[in-house]
């Protein structure tokens, strides 16, 4: 009997497994296709993804494409540590989709980038399944992406994610600070927790305070790790009907920088957003992190969303209508403040 000789390519010896990459692509084809609408012209495999706009053009007088790109930051390190990759893709889509939603865009398509130290087809399938789920929640067609196996850049087991979302809006219907007026009401949409920002500080607090990520601390509904890995909320289904009805002046996606920095983007120079923090209950996870890390309230406000994932700015006479419609969705919402003539800062916390 002849001895079987295993032959490996120089590329595989260098750490790149082409066969695993091909298997991963085969695994995700059906998953990706399930997200796509009739405007997608081809599937995975082309040099570029194609999305037809013909059917959309009649709906817009002055069509504007709105794009956004983002990642999930060091939340990935917790997902890798926990070996839980199923929902990090939802975070990725949310970081991009919520940004273009805040400008009033109807979501069209999404592309992703996945860089890895070692490609494992099952892990890739799990990650991409999460991205596909996020796209379904946001109404985006996942039309393409890139998987790059880069030993030496990433350690085995490590990976990084980036996403790119494109939407469309009529120029006259774009949301923004130019619509905001004194007397407008701030409506806060609840977050699901930390979402995908501030995790470098989260990880420092865990390390410095020696927190047990597998422990369920008082007030949490799950372990610390599971609480932190709760995926970011996608707000499109709740907010899109309000935008289409012309009920929203502006919106702020509350990501890095918290309410202060992100809401400031939507304030004209002559106006200030007064935020009343007593109008909502700060989730326990933020209280735990603040207490364990000895973090000041001002720093907490500038790093974390503190329980508010998006702020809508609406006219006072439409505020109750907006709240009533939001209360019919799965997203919790409440009035958290108002717009007034300019004080010292574009966003200020007040107590009433």
UniProtKB/TrEMBL annotation:
<dbReference type="Pfam" id="PF02769">
    <property type="entry name" value="AIRS_C"/>
</dbReference>
<dbReference type="GO" id="GO:0005829">
    <property type="term" value="C:cytosol"/>
</dbReference>
<dbReference type="GO" id="GO:0004637">
    <property type="term" value="F:phosphoribosylamine-glycine ligase activity"/>
</dbReference>
<dbReference type="GO" id="GO:0005524">
    <property type="term" value="F:ATP binding"/>
</dbReference>
<keyword id="KW-0658">Purine biosynthesis</keyword>
<keyword id="KW-0963">Cytoplasm</keyword>
<protein>
    <recommendedName>
        <fullName>Phosphoribosylformylglycinamidine cyclo-ligase</fullName>
        <ecNumber>6.3.3.1</ecNumber>
    </recommendedName>
</protein>
<dbReference type="InterPro" id="IPR010918">
    <property type="entry name" value="PurM-like_C_dom"/>
</dbReference>
<feature type="domain" description="PurM-like N-terminal">
    <location>
        <begin position="64"/>
        <end position="169"/>
    </location>
</feature>
<dbReference type="Pfam" id="PF00586">
    <property type="entry name" value="AIRS"/>
</dbReference>
<dbReference type="InterPro" id="IPR036676">
    <property type="entry name" value="PurM-like_C_sf"/>
</dbReference>
<comment type="similarity">
    <text>Belongs to the AIR synthase family.</text>
</comment>
<keyword id="KW-0436">Ligase</keyword>
<dbReference type="GO" id="GO:0004641">
    <property type="term" value="F:phosphoribosylformylglycinamidine cyclo-ligase activity"/>
</dbReference>
<dbReference type="GO" id="GO:0006189">
    <property type="term" value="P:'de novo' IMP biosynthetic process"/>
</dbReference>
<comment type="pathway">
    <text>Purine metabolism; IMP biosynthesis via de novo pathway; 5-amino-1-(5-phospho-D-ribosyl)imidazole from N(2)-formyl-N(1)-(5-phospho-D-ribosyl)glycinamide: step 2/2.</text>
</comment>
<dbReference type="GO" id="GO:0046084">
    <property type="term" value="P:adenine biosynthetic process"/>
</dbReference>
<dbReference type="InterPro" id="IPR016188">
    <property type="entry name" value="PurM-like_N"/>
</dbReference>
<dbReference type="InterPro" id="IPR004733">
    <property type="entry name" value="PurM_cligase"/>
</dbReference>
<dbReference type="InterPro" id="IPR036921">
    <property type="entry name" value="PurM-like_N_sf"/>
</dbReference>
<keyword id="KW-0067">ATP-binding</keyword>
<feature type="domain" description="PurM-like C-terminal">
    <location>
        <begin position="182"/>
        <end position="344"/>
    </location>
</feature>
<keyword id="KW-0547">Nucleotide-binding</keyword>
């Amino acid at each position: 009997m002849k001895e079987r000789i295993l032959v490996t390519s120089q590329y595989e010896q260098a750490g790149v497994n082409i066969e695993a990459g091909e298997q991963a692509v085969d695994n995700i084809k059906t998953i990706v296709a399930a997200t796509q609408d009739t405007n997608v012209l081809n599937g995975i495999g082309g040099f570029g993804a194609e999305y037809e706009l013909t059917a959309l053009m009649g709906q817009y007088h002055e069509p504007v494409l709105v794009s956004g790109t983002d990642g999930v930051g060091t939340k990935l390190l917790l997902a890798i540590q926990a070996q839980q990759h199923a929902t990090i893709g939802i975070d990725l889509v949310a970081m991009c989709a919520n940004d273009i939603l805040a400008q009033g865009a109807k979501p069209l398509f999404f592309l992703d980038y996945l860089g890895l130290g070692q490609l494992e087809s099952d892990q890739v399938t799990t990650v991409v399944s999460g991205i596909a789920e996020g796209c379904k929640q946001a109404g985006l067609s996942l039309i393409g992406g890139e998987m790059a196996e880069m030993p030496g850049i990433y350690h085995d087991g490590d990976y990084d994610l980036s996403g790119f979302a494109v939407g469309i809006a009529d120029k006259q219907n774009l949301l923004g600070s130019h619509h905001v007026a004194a007397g407008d009401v701030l409506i806060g949409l609840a977050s699901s927790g930390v979402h995908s920002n501030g995790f470098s500080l989260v990880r420092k607090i865990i390390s410095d305070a020696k927190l047990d990520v597998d422990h369920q601390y008082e007030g949490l509904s799950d372990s610390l790790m599971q609480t932190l890995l709760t995926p970011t909320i996608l707000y499109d289904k709740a907010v899109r009907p309000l935008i289409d009805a012309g009920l929203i002046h502006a919106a702020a996606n509350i990501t890095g920088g918290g309410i202060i920095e992100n809401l400031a983007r939507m304030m004209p120079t002559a106006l200030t957003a007064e935020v009343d923090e007593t109008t909502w209950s700060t989730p326990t996870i933020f209280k735990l992190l603040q207490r364990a890390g000895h973090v000041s309230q001002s720093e907490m406000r500038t790093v974390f969303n503190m329980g508010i994932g998006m702020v809508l700015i609406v006219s006072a006479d439409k505020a109750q209508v907006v709240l009533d419609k939001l209360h019919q969705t799965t997203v919790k919402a409440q009035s958290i403040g108002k717009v007034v003539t300019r004080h010292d800062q574009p966003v200020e916390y007040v107590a009433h």
